[in-house]
Design goal:
This protein has helices at 80-89, 107-111, 134-138, 144-156, 182-193, 217-220, 239-255, and strands at 2-9, 12-19, 56-60, 67-72, 99-104, 161-168, 175-178, 200-203, 227-235, 273-281, 288-289, 298-299, 305-309, 312-315, 321-324, 335-342. By secondary structure, it is an alpha/beta fold. It folds into 2 domains: 2-30 and 272-342, no CATH class; 56-255, Zn peptidases (Aminopeptidase, 3-Layer(aba) Sandwich), CATH 3.40.630. An 11-stranded mixed beta sheet has the order 3-5-4-6-9-7-8-10-16-15-12, with helices on both faces. Helix 1 packs across helix 7 (239-255). The protein binds zinc ion. Zinc ion binds next to loops. Its cofactor is Zn(2+). Its EC number is 3.5.1.15.
Amino acid sequence: MSCASKRQHSGKSTYRFRTLSEVLPPPLPALPHAAPEAPPPDLTQWVQGNCGIRGVHHFESHKPGPHIAVTALMHGNEYAGAHALAQILATPLQPTLGRLSLIFLNLEAYAAFDPRRPSQFRFVEEDMNRLWMPELIRSAHSSVEMRRVRELLPVIDTVDVLLDLHSMTWPSATLLLTSMAERNLLMANTLACGQAKPPQVVLDQGHPAGPRLIDYERFSDPTGTARACLLEAGQHWTRSATEQSLLTARIFLAQHGMIPPLPVPAPTHSCVHAMVTDCVVAQTAGFAFIRSFMGGDIIEHAGTLIAIDGMDEIRTPYNNCMLVIPNLRPRRGHTAVRLARVL
Ligand SMILES: [Zn+2]
């Protein structure tokens, strides 16, 4: 016997079904990554930058055109994107139009990275990807990450198209995340469809804890023209995440004339688009998925049981429900998974 209840989380609805039956949660999955598969890159020669701002590498064509940027290391322990930028910087860059910036973002957090404790050092004092709010940037608030945001702002404020490279804690399909502005969906779609196995394109409204770089008003204002999206390249510290970061960054640069054109491969998979509708927050310390879902898994039928949270059952609210970045060991009060409707 069960009855449905609907809880509110940050203005978004989550469907829960209270059960009277005895349900034993499955054992917790093991934490991932006993040891990083790909070692952290040596960024010694890139830390200084070439334009007076640490970690910023800038290239001018001296011809009209957009300012294109690729950013990595927003989170200090997500170094797949840093591998990609270091490899791109290792060959001479000469944009044919406009300007190019390649930026290593949170250098302090990366400098602290310790492979013996790889899950730490996402940031030094606070999550740099929740600070991209003009009022906050102009305020007296201060931290290592806030100071870095302010240092980079003169560059970011002139970028026309930006790709931000990240990776994930748990196994997942590759994702391209965009804010809700249609121009960003088009950008992500073009980037995804340039790949034989396109990343899943996921639209969302950001995080209640604060705006990401891709949510910064320059990129998300409905009346603006600048565009941005965020690549989640796969699981942290895997060789495949590095390869995916490099592939996506190179396709992005080629699409904008920053490097020579690349051959467009025949697609082996179709493009999947989804829109985040619900954020499931763990209400108890006993939250557990019924199996080790992978990010990007699509659950075909509405009402399918996916997790137990205390005495609550968490079921999918609609057919073809995508699980976006499930956290297989969420702490109480933290996001366990976001649910997205496949479009
Ligand atoms: Zn990240």
